[in-house]
Amino acid sequence: MLANSAPPRPAARLLAVAAVLAVSLPLVACTADDTQLTIQSDGGEHRFTVEVVDTPESRARGLMYVQELADDAGMLFDFKEERPVSFWMRNTYIPLDMLFIEADGTVLNIHVNARPHDTTGIPSAGPVQFVLEIPGGRSEELGIEAGDQVTHPRITAAQ
Fold first, then answer.
1. In the predicted model, is pLDDT for residue 4 greater than 50?
2. Quick check: 94 and 114 in contact, CB under 8 A?
3. CB 149 within 8 A of CB 40
4. Which UniProt keyword terms apply here (predicted)?
């Protein structure tokens, strides 16, 4: 406090506290761990550690140039609204499974073992908000199918 300034009034203190809370509360609400994703299938719960990409630039790059991906790792694409989407494997070095997911977390369709470097479009079967890419063949190994439910903080927020 400056020596020449008057001491703060109680109302000013209350406003300062309210301002701090107003700024802090949204941050608290957004601290959910968005690296953890779970798929509930007939075979049980399957957990993946994911990187979320949600900008045009990050979605365009995706898993291009990645040389390996752990069995329990993946990338979750968030398009922020439901719409038909299509992917390709240009500059992608590893086979991938693509799970096309509706806003409510329901797996709409799965493309298994997308071929590296293939520029053929891989479309969703309808409007989706999310696409999960995991190592090629992993969805079949785990028994993940269309209709299974995906849980993630972004998906919960989209509902």
1. no
2. no
3. yes
4. Signal
| pLDDT tens, residue by residue, 99-125 | 999 999 999 999 999 999 999 999 999
Rounded CA gap, 106 and 145, in Å?
10
- If we measure between CA atoms, which residue out of 18, 17, 54, 52 comes closest to residue 37? 52
Q: Which two tokens stand for residue 17?
A: 């506290």
pLDDT (tens digit per residue) in 38-89: 999 999 999 999 999 999 999 999 999 999 999 999 999 999 999 999 999 9
Q: By three-state DSSP, how is residue 95 classified?
A: coil
Q: In this structure, what token pair is assigned to residue 23?
A: 């700024």
Residue the block writes with tokens 């400056």: 2
The reported pTM is 0.79
How many other CB atoms are there within 10 angstroms of residue 46's CB atom? 20
Tokens of 90: 């240009």
Q: For 36-158, CATH number?
A: 2.60.120.1140
Q: Are 117 and 89 in contact (CB under 8 A)?
A: yes
